[in-house]
Automatic annotation (TrEMBL):
It is a peripheral membrane protein. This is ATP synthase subunit delta. This protein is part of the stalk that links CF(0) to CF(1). It either transmits conformational changes from CF(0) to CF(1) or is implicated in proton conduction. F(1)F(0) ATP synthase produces ATP from ADP in the presence of a proton or sodium gradient. F-type ATPases consist of two structural domains, F(1) containing the extramembraneous catalytic core and F(0) containing the membrane proton channel, linked together by a central stalk and a peripheral stalk. During catalysis, ATP synthesis in the catalytic domain of F(1) is coupled via a rotary mechanism of the central stalk subunits to proton translocation. It comes from Waltera intestinalis. GO terms for molecular function: proton-transporting ATP synthase activity, rotational mechanism. It is found in: Cell membrane; Membrane.
Amino acid sequence: MAKLVSKVYGEALFEVAVDHGNAIRLMNETAELQKILEDNPDFDKLMKHPGIPKQEKLSMVEKVFRGRVSDDLTEFLKIVVTKERYGSLKAIFAYFTELVRESEGMGTAYVSTAVELTKEQKQAVREKLLQTTSYQSFDVYYHVDPTLIGGMVIRVGDRVVDSSIRTKLEDMKKQLLNIQLG
């Protein structure tokens, strides 16, 4: 259910951003707002509290955000509060950001390696990703996982390329177990 909520509201925000020609600006604004909300957990508690009337929450949104964030974002926040979806705001913003990044040709890759890569190796990975995908730019997040033994695992969206030694050994083990002797 939460995934459906984030998708519906994230797509709605994306449509507004595209219609108004400000997708990148609104994406950056939602990221900044997310940081602010994370830094102010008391505001989050107030907005999620079931005992506070919806009208009072709408008034708080108006007072806190009007003039500080874009009108599009303020109005969106009011809709989210009205429909009692404030608890899904983080997931909505994440889905919206994903849509904007995809539409702008901006990819995100998660790279796991057994050892830390050098600056040159990281640049080579980035260049290879750009060559083999349709993205114009990439944010690449690196993670060291010694259990991989060697090689790397790259995840871009729902695609995974696993060239780790650990996986190759597991595959070899399965093949050897399937061999019937005599």
